[in-house]
Design a protein that fits this description.
Low-confidence stretches: none
Number of strands: 0
Order of helices and strands: HHHHHHHHHHHHHHHHHHHHH
Distance between the termini: 29 Å
Number of helices: 21
Mean pLDDT: 81
Strand content: under 5%
Helix content: over 70%
């Protein structure tokens, strides 16, 4: 039986277990799922370092590195602008707040008051640092080791550090460069083997994660904010089923069916873990082996995408910000919608690729517009479900970029 069949079985059985078993089982499911996420996260930093340094060394020519880097950044930026524009348009047309009563708002604010306060407090540092210059400063870590040991790790700083190390190593004479390149390649292959071993336990990990989600949420939460949930999910579906396949088909010639089929395991893992970072090790392996993207381009595009490409997260943030504003009686102007577009694109780039991080950065988007931060409590009930969906969109965008860049470099098999 193939891995994606086993993972899908874990998802189904986890949903059933979460719905049927008593709350006493929650610590067991929580531990089972957490162990799986921890195991994948354990591999992430050494894999990103090895893959990016190796990618830069393999690309060799600085001009090629510049081309690949520019194409990657342009695709991610255009994709993010399209995603947020769709989200803003949908939220303003559908206006999911009109299905939301004042009584329901008061009830949800009370129910999720503590969780909302915790998320708002977590966002305070991000709001203080959220400026263009602050973002640029973050790209150069004062201490790379500290960036790796933070919780969550500062992936943007780690990526820049890895690229700079790769560039410096590529400028060394052969006698000094080759041993380092061999070590980097060996480390990369060791991490891939470790991923293979971890993925043997994926069905169990996914089973625990899904059981925890169903047992924790319950159906009544989804019903209370159904219009908001469907609006955000609908925009994600359009971006996933229209924008990515159209761009992949137009720029690379790859059929959407081949694209989706090759990424089945990645989508299922992203859905169950809600973490682009935890999914990255598997994504690197699958995009190279199934979609035939050369390893240097796969490593470069996906490692960078895990931090700077968050289309699904950006869609959620834009819809949530407008929904909360409307619930509190704010009728946003064209200028305020434009501000949401700009800040959401930047905030998505700075969002950590871990579960729940999108909500923390949501406060950064809401603050300049004057949207009440306590409104975050209104969407926390269904955030885990949307987190699962937006992670699938995020990793699909990473893979689409890798395919398109490889095709543009004429390195994608016909």
């Amino acid at each position: 039986m193939k891995l994606h069949h086993l993972i899908l079985g874990g998802i189904v059985l986890g949903c059933l277990a979460g719905a049927l078993l008593p709350q006493a089982w929650l610590p067991f499911f929580d531990t089972l799922g957490e162990l799986f996420i921890r195991a994948l996260s354990m591999v992430m930093i050494p894999l990103v370092l090895a893959s990016l340094i190796g990618a830069v060394l393999s690309l060799g020519d600085p001009r090629k590195l510049g081309r690949v880097g520019l194409k990657t950044i342009v695709y991610y930026l255009v994709s993010a602008v399209v995603a947020v524009s769709l989200a803003i348009a949908a939220a303003n047309v559908v206006k999911p707040s009109r299905f939301f009563s004042a009584e329901r708002r008061v009830k949800l604010e009370a129910e999720f008051k503590d969780k909302a306060a915790a998320r708002i407090k977590s966002s305070e540092k991000a709001r203080e640092e959220f400026t263009v210059w602050g973002f640029i400063k973050r790209t150069i870590p004062k201490n790379p080791v500290a960036a790796m040991t933070e919780d969550p790790p500062d992936m943007l700083a780690i990526i820049v550090f890895a690229v700079l190390v790769g560039v410096a190593a590529s400028l060394l004479p052969d006698a000094a460069r080759k041993p380092f390149a061999d070590f980097t390649q060996s480390l990369y292959e060791v991490m891939l083997k470790l991923i293979h071993l971890i993925m043997l336990a994926a069905p169990l990990g996914v089973f625990g994660l899904m059981a925890r989600v169903v047992m924790t949420l319950g159906p009544e939460i989804l019903l209370s904010v159904f219009a908001y949930f469907i609006t955000a999910l609908g925009v994600m579906a359009v971006h996933f089923f229209v924008f990515y396949p159209v761009t992949v088909r137009f720029f690379s010639g790859m059929s959407p069916l081949a694209f989706w089929k090759g990424l089945r395991d990645v989508f299922l893992t992203a859905f169950s873990t809600s973490s682009s970072a935890a999914t990255l090790p598997l994504s690197l392996k699958v995009v190279h082996e199934n979609l035939k993207v050369p390893m240097p381009i796969t490593n470069f595009c996906l490692s960078m995408g895990a931090t700077v490409n968050m289309d699904g997260t950006a869609i959620f943030q834009a819809v949530a910000a407008i929904f909360i504003a409307n619930v509190y009686g704010m009728d946003l102007t064209l200028g305020q919608n434009a501000a949401i577009l700009a800040t959401t694109v930047l905030a998505a780039i700075g969002t950590a690729p871990i579960p729940g991080a999108g909500v923390v950065m949501l406060a950064v988007i809401m603050t300049p517009i004057g949207i009440p931060l306590e409104g975050i409590a209104l969407i926390l009930g269904v955030d885990r479900l949307l987190d699962m969906a937006r992670t699938v969109v995020n990793v699909a965008g990473d893979a689409a970029c890798a395919v398109i860049v490889a095709a543009s470099e004429k390195e994608l098999p016909a």
